[in-house]
Amino acid sequence: MEHYTIATVAEESPDFRRVLWTGEHTQLVVMTIPPGGEIGEEVHEDIDQILTFVSGIGEAIISGQKKKVAQGDLVVVPAGKKHNFVNTGENPLILYTVYGPPEHADGAVHKTKEEADAAEEAGKDEPPIS
């Protein structure tokens, strides 16, 4: 059994992206977006994503629609939808997200967005093959 006090785990992680758990059909990831930072506009063609915000304030942009997000908010990004999340506050925007199916390499830790982007471009952040 895996058990997390997820808000605490997310707030204690200084990393841009940290994969906590990977299953056959889903993946749990915590993220910390620095002030002025963003996840970066992207589309997951065959992956649904659910994001829950733990602290900070930001903006969700999904298929051109914008919505403010803050602690306690949950945003669903259906597969195939262009999306981005931007930190608009003075403190880190901290969240956890569930991908279905997994999107990242099992156990991946990326300290910065630049490190995460480089790993993806180099093919070093591929999800496990079931």
What do these coordinates show?
By secondary structure, the protein is mainly beta. The chain has a single domain (6-122), classed as Jelly Rolls, CATH 2.60.120.10. Helix content is 12%, strand content 40%. It is built from 2 helices and 9 strands; from the N terminus they run αβββββββββα. It has helices at residues 6-12, 113-121, and strands at 17-22, 27-33, 48-55, 57-62, 65-70, 74-77, 83-87, 93-100, 109-110. The chain has a 6-stranded antiparallel beta sheet. The protein has a 3-stranded antiparallel beta sheet with strand order 5-4-7, with no helix packed on it. Strand 4 (57-62) and strand 5 form a beta hairpin. The protein is globular. The model has no long low-confidence stretch (mean pLDDT 97).
Descriptive key words:
single chain, mainly beta, Jelly Rolls, six-stranded antiparallel β-sheet, three-stranded antiparallel β-sheet, 2 helices
Q: What about the largest sheet?
A: 6 strands, antiparallel
Strands, total number: 9
CATH architecture descriptor: Sandwich
Question: What proportion strand?
Answer: 35-45%
Order of helices and strands: HEEEEEEEEEH
Strand arrangement within the widest β-sheet reads 6-3-8-2-1-9
Average of per-residue pLDDT values: 97
The rounded distance between the terminal residues' Cα atoms is 20 Å
Structural class: mainly beta
Q: Compute the gyration radius: what is it?
A: 14 Å
> Percent range for helical residues?
10-25%
Name of the CATH homologous superfamily: Jelly Rolls
List the total number of helices: 2
